[in-house]
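Minutes, project check-in
Item: structure for the 632-residue chain
Input as provided by the requester:
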Amino acid sequence: MDGSNGEERLVHEVALVVPKRTREEEEGDCVEVLVTELKKRGMVVDKDVGLADVFLKVAAPLETLESAAAELHIRKPTRLGMDLPFEMQGSEAFIQQPDGSLFSWFERFRCYQHLLYGIVNCYGHDVTLKLDGRELCWAAGESLVRKLESEGVIKQMFPLHDELKRKELLPTWALNWWNFTNQPIDKIYSYFGAKIGVYFSFLGMYTQWLLFPALLGFIVQMVDFGSLQFLVLPSFFVITTLWAALFLQFWKRKNAALLARWQINCLVGPSQGYRFLGMEWSSLPFPKELVRNLGDEKFKEKEPYQRYEWFAYRKRFVLLAIYLLIIQYLTRLGAKVSVKLINREVNESVEYRANSLIYKVFGLYFMQTYIGIFYHALLHRNFMTLRQLLLQRLIISQVFWTLMDGSLPYLKYSYRKFRARKKKRNEVGPSTGKIQISSRVEKEYFKPTYSASIGVELEDGLFDDSLKLALQFGMIMMFACAFPLAFTLAAVSNIMEIRTTALKLLVTLQRPSPRAAATIGAWLNIWQFLVVMSICTNSALLVCLYDKEGKWKMEPGLAAILIMEHILLLLKFGLSRLVPEEPAWVRANRLKNVTQAQDMYSKQLLRSSSGESTPMVTPEQEQKQQQELKQS
């Protein structure tokens, strides 16, 4: 469903893959029963017959989505200045999305899942379903989709690309090479969801900010300053450090502005970052049985929580110690073990588990990526060898990742098409000629999913892209004094990364399932850590550059480096206090919404206490009523 241009456009957004039947069932065919039940739920179903499977394309009209959103109690921003559970009767009071639709892609996908998995047997007795001679028992109160998934009837459920919007994004985003860093962020958010929209906004801003140190690093690397070279490198180090600290602080401001523009309201917790209001993406912070079994006495209320809290901390500490023992040995094995340990940790929500995975896996790759560079930098003290090593790492890693991102999805797609054609040719015989795949849905089914290489249940493909970006940032920042030209190479790499990743998402991969995310999450803390590390490593590099004999004497030059290191650390943490994390208009808008909500609740409370039963009106309606009274 698309509400752009003020009119409703019905779009098939989800597909179900079921096997092609070898014989027709007279009654109780499970696929026909599924189609009938989907239509009863108000959805529009079309069939596409492929080589070996049948694809059920599902679309939901606006009324069906509204009904599902009301059943889910999805909280949405209103013109009253507050988030309220969605209701069909007052749908005009809810603020629309940037593309003109009522629901975001994340909200629509939640509604689709609710509609599909909400089909249950309400007949009061078991129903026998048939498929190619098999009989399945659909028990009373059981979900039909889950039953068919467990029996292998539904092979996969995946989101479908919207061809109109995809063709609109291709020339304006993926193939728009002339605008190096400009991206249609609002359209990306509307099509892929907040998580991918925030990531590409961060990548675009990072690339824009990277142009200044890239130009400066090119000059420092290529121009011979003669005797002033010993002053140029410390100056470049100071400039890049302040640049990184300011960039991360201004990204927080841009992130807050994006969320305000997209009408995404969040609460900021002390340790968990951002939590969506009304998304129900996080689980409860304590098991439900604790809350259910609490008594009335205060001591009995505190005791289960305290025991559970200390048990969680102890278990997390022990598992972390086990993880640190194996971190030095096998990176890939350690990453898989970290996923197993995270699943056994007592974490408060899926967000905590995902952040824990990010920290652990980044620790592995941090050691693997930088241990050899640290060895050359601090023990060999050979800047020429270090520059050659950094150049090789940056170029080879960029070429490797570009080839992997571009070729692997296409090779998987081609291999799946080849297998399907070969299977069909074996069934019908070789005399049928070339077998063509004409169904667009079947072509999308053969495309690989946008999934993470580690921890698929917690993260999507952005995990690998964010990891690659963080490792690049650490490499150019921590060894800025040794190889200033690395900033230029990183800027060129990121310009290519924006377009190649966009092309991958739009052409060679299935449409990703939306995930709830308001920021880049734990990656922001990792980037802050890398800035602090860069201050220490570049100071050590300058010490090695000045102290060529390795005597480590506190001569005036070395003392100045240590003083500069402490000053930069103070400036780095001081900038986080001097630069506000959100723009003034965002704070003013939030305060205005809070004030409007308080006024509205106060008036409703006074009316209810006086016995009046008047409906709630919006501030715009109230202002209009006051103007009419003045005119009369």
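Outcome recorded: The beta strands are 14-19, 44-49, 53-59, 75-77, 83-85, 127-131, 134-138, 156-159, 266-269, 273-276.
No further action items on this chain.
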